[in-house]
Design brief:
Radius of gyration: 17 Å
Number of strands: 9
Number of helices: 0
Largest sheet: 8 strands, antiparallel, barrel
Distance between the termini: 50 Å
Order of helices and strands: EEEEEEEEE
Strand content: over 45%
Shape: elongated
Helix content: under 10%
Structural class: mainly beta
Number of domains: 1
Strand order of the largest sheet: 2-3-4-5-6-7-8-9
């Protein structure tokens, strides 16, 4: 059984300046902004026993699942486990979390380094990814117990992803 938790929408942060980003998740000064997209989808959690105490349970993050859109609302690709971002042109970037900035009531803002790029297209030279302007996506504090072990929870979220490349 899969549950769905709703979240509100937030405007697209196309014009957020580098100076407005928290220091912990700023892209390196040697990189330039390539692309800004909005994401709308879900963060998927699974009810699992905690690592420290198998008699206690919690919602554990499993994967994201979202569509990516440009400022006009045109779908550009998708975001999924890895974490991976894949463009409609076939290019793909897989990231690794380097830093986070907590955002009350929602999933944190992140700075990710590109671990691997594939294909030829918009994502083939990405070096850094930021997740900012998050709305929703956070697992609830309760509702996960032995009776719900293995169940998935899909929590709506929206975010802005910014992709950077090395300066020429």
């Amino acid at each position: 059984m899969t549950a769905l938790v709703c979240a509100c929408q937030r405007p697209f942060a196309q014009d957020l300046k580098r100076s407005q980003i928290p220091d912990a998740i700023k892209a390196p000064a040697t990189e330039k902004l390539l692309l800004t997209v909005s994401a709308k989808g879900v963060q998927i959690y699974e009810c699992r026993a905690t690592k420290d105490d198998p008699s206690k349970f919690e919602w554990s993050f499993k994967a994201p699942e979202a569509d990516l859109f440009d400022a006009t609302g045109k779908k550009l690709g998708r975001h999924y486990g890895g974490p991976s971002w894949e463009s409609m042109d076939g290019s793909k970037v897989v990231g690794e979390v380097k830093a986070r900035h907590d955002s009350p009531g929602t999933i944190p803002w992140l700075l990710l380094a590109a671990r691997k790029c594939e294909g030829t297209g918009v994502f083939d030279k990405v070096t850094t990814i930021q997740r900012i302007d998050t709305v929703g996506g956070k697992a609830p504090a309760g509702g996960c117990d032995a009776a719900n072990s293995g169940k998935e929870l899909r929590v709506n979220y929206a975010a802005t992803y910014r992709f950077y490349v090395a300066e020429d």
